[in-house]
Amino acid sequence: MLYKYRMAEPLVDWVILVLHPSILWVKDCAFCKHNAADGRISCCPLPELMTPESLLGMFEEIDGCLPRVEQRLKISDPTDVQAEVLVFDVIEPQYIVGVIYEKALVRDAHAHLLGDRKPYVHSNNKGMFANRKYARTWG
């Protein structure tokens, strides 16, 4: 989804926030192995999506998706590229541990705002700004 908006607004300097993983167990979260708007997810009762089993299900082999080995997925990659975690709470600033920029110039312009957060640059459609299939195949 980020790609769609980046292409629609090419003059905007986009960033990706790196969040502390503890959000997954200290906040109320729903774990969606497909896009949350997908009928296979939206028809599920919310409490069912908020279980450890739903989190694990994001990383299992899924009917309709290529096998994980064929996708060359890392252990931390959900099987479906559209999988998502919904957080039903405020994510306070202390949970932001880093910021990924597309341009070093933008990183440098905002460095004074980061405090002790780690800055990263993933430029030219690389890293977190890359297409996952491309990144895992040619990465």
UniProtKB/TrEMBL annotation:
PROSITE patterns: DART. One of its GO terms (molecular function) is glycosyltransferase activity. Transmembrane segments: none annotated. Residues 1-129 form the DarT domain. The keyword Glycosyltransferase applies. Keywords: DNA-binding, Glycosyltransferase, Nucleotidyltransferase, Toxin-antitoxin system, Transferase. Signal peptide: none annotated. The keyword Metal-binding does not apply. Belongs to the DarT ADP-ribosyltransferase family. This is DarT domain-containing protein. It comes from Pseudomonas fluorescens (strain Q2-87).
